[in-house]
Every structure is written in structure tokens, then in C-alpha cells.
Specification:
The protein is α/β, with parallel strands linked by helices. Helix content is about 40%, strand content about 20%. The chain is built from eleven helices and twelve strands. The longest helix has 23 residues. The protein is globular, with a radius of gyration of 19 Å.
Length: about 280
């Protein structure tokens, strides 16, 4: 996420984004030393969309950056071309710079990933897209990510901001990145997506059978956003950690109470044990 920090500095001004939102993006205002406005998304039967009316009301002359996460973390949505075009129109209307976090772009389980910068010339010239092989190839520990910056002036400013902040690329990271994208892993990637898709389907059925829990339908990533509000548990993260010994991610850190996030990028046996523990703990509640 250092790249997102620098991209926000390049964009300048205060930061605007829609919540719930990935926890590290929510730390960007502190890291980039910028003011922030968080706008809740609209939710209809656990289907989330950006609230452009609220965004219009929230934007000010000081707003400089809109941060987009697509595919979305934590609820796994793949935004449509129409939705992304609305973002681009909104950004153009208010002269906003868009920072697009697209790190999960190869983990599409249904639908199509559309890179933000590919929408039109305006989006291309007024955005920075951040990505990495860390998610699709499971190599987040190797320090090599990349920014897509078609605008040469923006690219120069970004490069100037990075001076002295990042280590020199090493041969291990470059070799891994090359292998992730040269086609040699394509069959493995497809097998991975198939496995994740099956895990998602299993997970969503299991959650639907546990009273008090609901899962947001996942279109991408290996993350599921679980609604626990009907259980009446005031702190689901602490409850499941203490009672079930299951370490979810706390929905509050993404900007929404009553939810937890689960990573289903794991063996099916581990996922089953997790859900068995959750179900049994709620029965004994």
C-alpha cells in the first residue's frame, strides 16, 4: 500500500471513498497526511452499490482524490462498466484524481474485470492503477508491485515521490513476477479460480443454513463479507474469537459494525472446520 499512499499525494487534496472499505485504504489519510470523507455505500438485500447522490453532496473544492477498490475488498463485488463510467463521470465533473486498487483483478469468479484506466481517455490520463501478483500468485511477501500510469507527467511526479522510499528490485522478486505473468501459470491460475469458486459456493450454502448469519454473494477475491446482525451479538469479532476460536476480520475496521470478513482461500477441510465451529458456537449461545 505504499504506492497508494504516494498516489494520493500525487493527486493532492483531501480523499474521498465509499465504505465499507479495505482497512489499509482507510489508513491512507493518516499516511498521506490528508483529510478524508467516508461515504457509506447503498445496500439492498446485501447488494452494495456506490451512492453517487451522497458522493455529490460530500465533495468539496478541497477534495482531490477518489479511491476505488475493484474488485472490492471486503465484499467481493466486480463493478460493472456502467458503474465505473459513473465514477469516471463523477471524477471528471469535480476534477478528481482516481486511485484504483485493482490487486484482486485476476481473482474474478464471475463477471468481467474492467480496468478503470481503460474506460476512456479522461480516465486514462487522470488515474493511477495499483496492482501486484501478490494475490493471484500468493507471493505478497516478495516486495514487488507496480503502478499503471499512462499519463507521462503523472508518472514522472509519482517516480519523484518514490525516490529513496523503495528498495532496489531484487532478482527473486523479478523472477517470480515474470513467472506470474508470462503465461506459464495460466493453467494453475484457472485451477485456483475453480477451487475458490467451489469454496465460495460451499461457504454460501453453509452460511445460509446457520441461523442469524448471511453472506454477501461473492463475485471476486477469496473474501466473504458476513452479516451477523440478526444474531444480536454486539461484537461478533470478539465473540467468535473467544467462543469458537475463529479469527475473522472485524467489520468495524472496514467501517461497518455487525459484520465480519472471512478468507476462504484455504483447503476445503479447513473451511469446513471453521464453519462447523461457528455453527456449533451459535447453537450453544
Amino acid at each position: 500500500m505504499p504506492g497508494a499512499n504516494l498516489a494520493c499525494r500525487v493527486g493532492g487534496g483531501s480523499i474521498l471513498y465509499s465504505t465499507p472499505m479495505y482497512t489499509h485504504i482507510r489508513r491512507l489519510p493518516q499516511e498521506a497526511r490528508a483529510a478524508v470523507t467516508e461515504i457509506p455505500m447503498k445496500e439492498d438485500n446485501l447488494f452494495y452499490t456506490m451512492d453517487f447522490e451522497a458522493l455529490e453532496q460530500a465533495v468539496t473544492p478541497q477534495t482531490g482524490v477518489y479511491v476505488l477498490c475493484n474488485p472490492h475488498n471486503p465484499f467481493g463485488r466486480v463493478f460493472t462498466r456502467q458503474e465505473l463510467t459513473e465514477v469516471a463521470d463523477f471524477a471528471k465533473k469535480h476534477d478528481l484524481f482516481v486511485v484504483a486498487d485493482e490487486i484482486h483483478c485476476e481473482l474474478i469468479l464471475e463477471g468481467e474485470h474492467i480496468p478503470y484506466f481503460s474506460l476512456n481517455k479522461e480516465a486514462e490520463q487522470n488515474s493511477i492503477t495499483l496492482c501486484s501478483a501478490g494475490k493471484i500468485a500468493n507471493i505478497p511477501g516478495l516486495p514487488l508491485a507496480y503502478a499503471i500510469i499512462p499519463n507521462p507527467d503523472l508518472r514522472k511526479r509519482f517516480e519523484e515521490e518514490t525516490l529513496g522510499l523503495f528498495p532496489v528490485r531484487n532478482i527473486l522478486s523479478e523472477t517470480a513476477l515474470t513467472a506470474a505473468y508470462n503465461g506459464s501459470c495460466d493453467a494453475w491460475k484457472e485451477e485456483l479460480r475453480d477451487y475458490l469458486r467451489a469454496n465460495r459456493d460451499y461457504l454460501e450454502v453453509r452460511i445460509s443454513e446457520i441461523p442469524g448469519l448471511k453472506a454477501v454473494h461473492n463475485q471476486a477475491t477469496y473474501l466473504v463479507w458476513i452479516d451477523t446482525r440478526e444474531t444480536g451479538i454486539t461484537d461478533p469479532y470478539a465473540f467468535f474469537l473467544e467462543k469458537a476460536r475463529v479469527h475473522f476480520n472485524d467489520g468495524k475496521t472496514y467501517g461497518l459494525d455487525g459484520f465480519v470478513r472471512l478468507n476462504f482461500g484455504c483447503p476445503r477441510s479447513q473451511l469446513k472446520e471453521t464453519l462447523d465451529r461457528v455453527e456449533q458456537t451459535l447453537k450453544q449461545k
